C-alpha cells in the first residue's frame, strides 16, 4: 500500500480549519467493517500521535462491494468507480497498542473486523521524512488520508471463510451509523444532466446529510488542528429496485421530499460505494475526499420543532426520538 505524501510547499486544498463547536455540524459516523491493514508503526512520543491517545498508526484498506442495484443503468452513474469490482478505500488507521509487541506477521495483509469512528474526507498531518537520506533530514511532508479511529480494542483478527462463488475478499458491506442534519434533496444537490436515469420521485428519495468528526492530533496547534471537521454523506433509498420499491412505496408517492434542509436525520445503513464528485452541484474541496453512498436499514427523520428542544450541540437528541419522529426499520 502506498500513502499520499506531498511536500508542504505544494497546493493542499484539504488543509481546512475545523469548527470550534459541533452545533449545526452534525454528529460523528461510526463504521463496522472488514479491514486489511499494514503493520502498525508505534509512536515514541504522544506529540507524534495522529490522534491523541492512540499510539499506533497504519495504512489500511477497506473494500466497498457494489450492490446489484448500484450497477443498474439508472444508478451506475452515481459511482466513482466504473468497474464492477469492489472499490478500495485507503485510510489512516489509528489505534492503541500499549504493553505488547507488534509482530508484522500478525498484521500485514491479514483481515480484521473493526468498529471505528470514520472520517471519509481527507485529513493532513505534518510528518518528518525519515528515509535515511542526509539531504532530506528534517524535511516536512503532508500525510494526507481519510481516517479510521479505533478505541477500546475495537478490533479482532479474522480468517474469512469464503464460498466457492466468492472472490478472495469478504463481500459484506460496511455498516455505518450516524446522526446529522439534512443539507438538501437530490433535486437541489445533484446534476440531473449527468443522471438521466433518476426521475423526480427518486431525486425526492435521496439527499445529503451533514456530519462532523472531532479530531485531536498529538500537537493540537498543527494540522489537521483540534476541532470538529465537517463532511457530508449521500443517503439514497433506491426506490426503482427491490426491496425498496415495495418497502418505500409511501415515500416514493409523496409529493414533497423528507430530505428538507436542517431536518435532523439518524440512520444505520450500508455503504454501497463512493459518490462521483462531478455529479454533485457542491462537491467537496479535495479529490481525496470520499463521499459515502449509504442505503439506510433503519432511519428517523426528526420533527424540527421537537428537535429544537434538544440541548445537544448538533441540535437533536440521539437516545430517544420524540413522538413526532418518523421512523422506519427494514426487516
Can you offer a commentary on this structure?
Residues 1-22 are annotated as: Disordered. By secondary structure, this protein is mainly beta. The protein has one domain (17-329). The protein is built from 5 helices and 14 strands. The chain has helices at 186-189, 200-204, 244-247, 249-253, 304-308, and strands at 5-7, 29-37, 41-42, 56-64, 87-95, 111-128, 140-149, 155-158, 175-185, 206-215, 227-236, 264-274, 292-301, 326-329. Strands 1, 2, 3, 4, 5, 6, 7, 8, 9, 10, 11, 12, 13 and 14 form a 14-stranded mixed beta sheet that branches. The longest helix is centred in the middle third of the chain and has 5 residues, at 200-204. It is globular, with a radius of gyration of 20 Å. The chain starts with a strand and ends with a strand. Mean pLDDT is 87; it is low at 6-11 and 311-327.
Any key phrases for this structure?
331 residues, mainly beta, 5 helices, 7% helix, globular
Low-confidence stretches: 6-11, 311-327
Oligomer: single chain
Distance between the termini: 38 Å
Radius of gyration computed on alpha carbons: 20 Å
Overall geometry comes to globular
Q: Which percent bin holds the helix content?
A: under 10%
Count of helices?
5
- Can you write the helix and strand succession as a string? EEEEEEEEEHHEEHHEEHE
What is the number of E strands? 14
**Arithmetic mean pLDDT:** 87
Structural class: mainly beta
- The proportion of strand residues reads 35-45%
Region (Disordered): 1-22
Amino acid at each position: 500500500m502506498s500513502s499520499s505524501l506531498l511536500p508542504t510547499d505544494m497546493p493542499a486544498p484539504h488543509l481546512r480549519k475545523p469548527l470550534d463547536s459541533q452545533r449545526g455540524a452534525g454528529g460523528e459516523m461510526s463504521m463496522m467493517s472488514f479491514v486489511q491493514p499494514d503493520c502498525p508503526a508505534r509512536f515514541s512520543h504522544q506529540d507524534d500521535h495522529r490522534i491523541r491517545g492512540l499510539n499506533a498508526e497504519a495504512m489500511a484498506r477497506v473494500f466497498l462491494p457494489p450492490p446489484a442495484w448500484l450497477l443498474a443503468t439508472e444508478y451506475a452513474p452515481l459511482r466513482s468507480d466504473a468497474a464492477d469490482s469492489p472499490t478500495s478505500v485507503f485510510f489512516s488507521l489509528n489505534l492503541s497498542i500499549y504493553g505488547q509487541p507488534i509482530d508484522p506477521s500478525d498484521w500485514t495483509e491479514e483481515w480484521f473486523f473493526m468498529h471505528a469512528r470514520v472520517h471519509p474526507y481527507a485529513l493532513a498531518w505534518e510528518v518528518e521524512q525519515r528515509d535515511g537520506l542526509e539531504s532530506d533530514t528534517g524535511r516536512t511532508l503532508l500525510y494526507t488520508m481519510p481516517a479510521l479511529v479505533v478505541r477500546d480494542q475495537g478490533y479482532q483478527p479474522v480468517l474469512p471463510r469464503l464460498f466457492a462463488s466468492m472472490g478472495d475478499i469478504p463481500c459484506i458491506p460496511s455498516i455505518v451509523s450516524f446522526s446529522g442534519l439534512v443539507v438538501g434533496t437530490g433535486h437541489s444537490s445533484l446534476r440531473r444532466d449527468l443522471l438521466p436515469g433518476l426521475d423526480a420521485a427518486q431525486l425526492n428519495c435521496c439527499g445529503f446529510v451533514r456530519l462532523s468528526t472531532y479530531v485531536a492530533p498529538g500537537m493540537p496547534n498543527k494540522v489537521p488542528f483540534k476541532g470538529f471537521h465537517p463532511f457530508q454523506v449521500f443517503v439514497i433509498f433506491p426506490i426503482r429496485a427491490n426491496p425498496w420499491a415495495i418497502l418505500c412505496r409511501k415515500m416514493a408517492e409523496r409529493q414533497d421530499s423528507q430530505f428538507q434542509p436542517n431536518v435532523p436525520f439518524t440512520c444505520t445503513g450500508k455503504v454501497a460505494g463512493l459518490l462521483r464528485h462531478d455529479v454533485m452541484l457542491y462537491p467537496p474541496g479535495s479529490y481525496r475526499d470520499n463521499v459515502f453512498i449509504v442505503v439506510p436499514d433503519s432511519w428517523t427523520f426528526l420533527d424540527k420543532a421537537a428537535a429544537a428542544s434538544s440541548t445537544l450541540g448538533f441540535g437533536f437528541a440521539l437516545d430517544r426520538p420524540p413522538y413526532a419522529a418518523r421512523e422506519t426499520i427494514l426487516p
